[in-house]
Amino acid sequence: MTQRCCFDEGNSIIAIDLVNGGYIQIPDFTQIKNLLSAKFIDLRSNPLESVPHSSDFVGLQLLERLYLPLQYLCPGGVDVWQKIESLPTENHCIQQKDFCANSTLKCTEKSSCSPNGPGQYLCLCEFGYTGYKCLRYGHFPTALFLGLTLPLTAVLSVVLYYTQRRHVKTN
Q1: Domain that residue 163 falls in
Q2: Which stretches of the chain are DSSP H helices?
Q3: Mind listing the pLDDT tens digit for each residue in 69-90?
Q4: Does residue 39 belong to any structural domain of this protein?
Q5: Membrane-spanning regions, if any (predicted)?
Q6: DSSP label at 2?
């Protein structure tokens, strides 16, 4: 245990205790190094004012338990969590469901779904495919690009040098 975090042997955070930390909004967990492996996050007894955003817990794929103040509901609700316990002062979100298996949102046929936190997913392109909705096949034509750009730049530079040389004042 270091401060309010529990670490495993690999120095990854497995639990973070933010109880009574005075937070009025959910912290940006993407800025905390090694947090993607967190299994437990406790935000109880915080005066959270903002409404839940779908991006509040992005990247927390392994999150098993999330403890929230009563006014802050579990992100995604029953579609995302196996069990939700509402106690008099807090909410417990327990065991994430596989969002890709349970969602009506689908990736394209050239990509596969990967969970990316409570109620979140990523569409990962198959090998060789890139771009928006994985519609492009192959790699960027670097040789063709450089083969056309470098000679054109050299010729344009020489032309500009000789045409603009007359404007240079000599003493």
Answers
A1: 141-167
A2: 99-102, 142-164
A3: 888 888 888 888 999 999 998 9
A4: yes
A5: 143-162
A6: B
The set of residues, in sequence order, having a beta carbon less than 8 Å from that of 170 and lying 6+ positions away, is none
Q: Is the pLDDT of residue 2 over 60?
A: no
Report if residue 33 sits inside a domain: yes
Kindly state whether residue 162 falls inside one of the protein's structural domains.
yes
| Residue 122 belongs to some domain of the structure | no
On the CB side of 72, CA atoms within 13 Å amount to 26
pTM reported for the whole predicted model: 0.68
Long-range contacts at 29-33 (CB < 8 A, ≥ 24 apart) = 29/56, 29/57, 29/58, 29/59, 29/60, 30/58, 30/59
> Is the alpha carbon torsion for 131, 135, 137, 140 positive or negative?
negative
Do 80 and 155 share a domain, yes or no? Answer: no
Question: In this structure, are residues 38 and 15 in contact, taking their beta carbons and an 8 Å threshold?
Answer: yes
